[in-house]
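From the shared-data thread, chain only:
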Amino acid sequence: MRCSRRRGFLDRENIGLGKGMRKQVVGGCVLAVVAALAGTWFVSTRAPERSPGDLHIALVGASIGQDWNLAGWPARVRTTGISAESFAVWQFDKTAAIDELLLRPKRPFKLTRTYLKSLFAPAPPKADVVILKECSSYFPGKGAAQRAAFETWQQTLSAAGTKVVLATVVPVTATRARADAGKQEALTAFNDWVREYAAQKDLPVLDLDAALRSGAPGSNLKDEFTSGDGSHLNAAAYAVLDRTLLDTVCAHKADAACARVAQNR
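Structure, as tokens:
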């Protein structure tokens, strides 16, 4: 198949192809060229320039990261030298996402429209800090397997020189807990393990549970923080988490920017 257009090439009267078929042929040519340029699996791209000392944070999670609008978080807390993003993964297993983050500024080759568009965008920034976060939707689950997976992801990231922050799971409201038997108890047990494991490995914890629960450890999400379903969060909750994230980052990155933010509170 030839992808160059000669005079009359792909004209209906010359080769008898309808409009739909011509689009398929042209599309196939484009994809073939992209695949050839991409090499085997990955495309090398130049990383965006960053100032010395800049820090990029990636939260690997699902709805909480998407609705939080982490890209706008630095402006909301009035800090500089830090950028953030949500890397949405809509399943418990975060293996593929972690592998993709560690490839940066390269991109994994995918024969999709989204991938083709990404070739015209700046290269994704390398994550200096990765926050591992799970959703209450995955509880109760296979507790031992879930903990083992978390350990593997942390070890993979740490071995690559990436700083890891472990996040606790946001609890559910009392009403939601009554509707989903065992959910609150399972995620409370997981949160306890996250704190213990982080202490063993000397890792920081983004304690979403402590920031949003109604009382002592094991208590439920405050009703004032739910969007209505007893699990997903509202704007008031994300305002609290803005400060929680900043406190966590600044506790492990003491610098002038964090000091200025603290003084302006």
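The chain has two domains: 1-40, 52-264.
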